[in-house]
Amino acid sequence: ARTVDIVGKLRAQYPDVPIIATGGPSDETILETIKAGANAITVTPPTSAVLVKIKMDKYRLMAEESCKGGKELI
pTM of the full predicted structure? Predict the structure, then answer.
């Protein structure tokens, strides 16, 4: 949320200076940053915790499907 405030203040003080800002973790924060005056957005990557969760969810699904078929996981 601070990014939006900072971009807004910079845009008000320097209307002709291009501003590149991080958009944050969601579509909503990206839109807020653009509305505040950013000319370009860099996407904030997912955290390592989010990446591990995605990987573990896929692993659990694979393990579940494997067990349904009567196969051993290991």
Answer: 0.62
**Cα–Cα distances in Å, from 38 out to 13, 17, 51, 54, 62?**
13, 10, 28, 31, 42
- Domain housing 72: 46-74
The SS3 call for residue 19 is: coil
* Residue 27 sits in the same domain as residue 10: yes
Spatial neighbors of 17 by CB under 8 A, at least 6 apart, are 10
Instruction: Return the pLDDT at 73.
Output: 58
**What per-residue confidence (pLDDT) applies to 1?**
65
Asked whether residue 11 falls in the same domain as residue 34, the answer is yes
At 46, which helix (H) or strand (E)?
Answer: none
* 21/54 same-domain check: no
pLDDT < 70 regions, the chain: 1, 69-74
